[in-house]
Amino acid sequence: MRPSVADVGLAGLAGTARVAAAPVLFPLVLVALGVMLLRLRAAPVAIGVLVLGGVAFPLSRITREASIAHVADLLLLLPFLYLGIRSLRQASRRPAPGAVVPA
């Protein structure tokens, strides 16, 4: 027996809508991140592969083709791996808070 809209209330419907929108939003966020990184020139152009990964991800899940899924996962893994390593390197080069930096 399914509860009616009156039984669930607006809070329950909003939670359900968020859960239902999650699979659609993940690839869109990947595409937006790739475009943002390219436009701001915050990362090399090769990182724009996130845009392709955002497109290939739902395509691989819908078709359930293993070869497309492997390519999509690689298109997502490599840019995030690069960004993570670059972030860790930059964090290790920063001086500690309160440290005296010679002029």
Q: Strand tally, please?
A: 0
Proportion of residues in β-strands: under 5%
Which structural class best describes the helix and strand composition? mainly alpha
Q: Mean pLDDT score, rounded?
A: 77
Number of helices: 3
* Shape call: elongated
Task: Please outline the major beta sheet.
Answer: none
N-to-C SSE series? Answer: HHH
- The helical percent reads over 70%
Low-confidence stretches: none
- Rg calculated over all Cα atoms: 20 Å
Distance between the termini: 72 Å
Keywords, please?
mainly alpha; single chain; 3 helices; 103 residues
Overview of the molecule:
Helix content is 76%, strand content 0%. The mean pLDDT is 77. The chain has three helices and no strands. The protein has helices spanning 5-39, 49-63, 66-93.
Give the gist of this structure:
The chain has helices at residues 5-39, 49-63, 66-93.
Secondary-structure topology with pairs:
Elements: H1 5-39, H2 49-63, H3 66-93
Helix pairs in contact: 1-2, 2-3
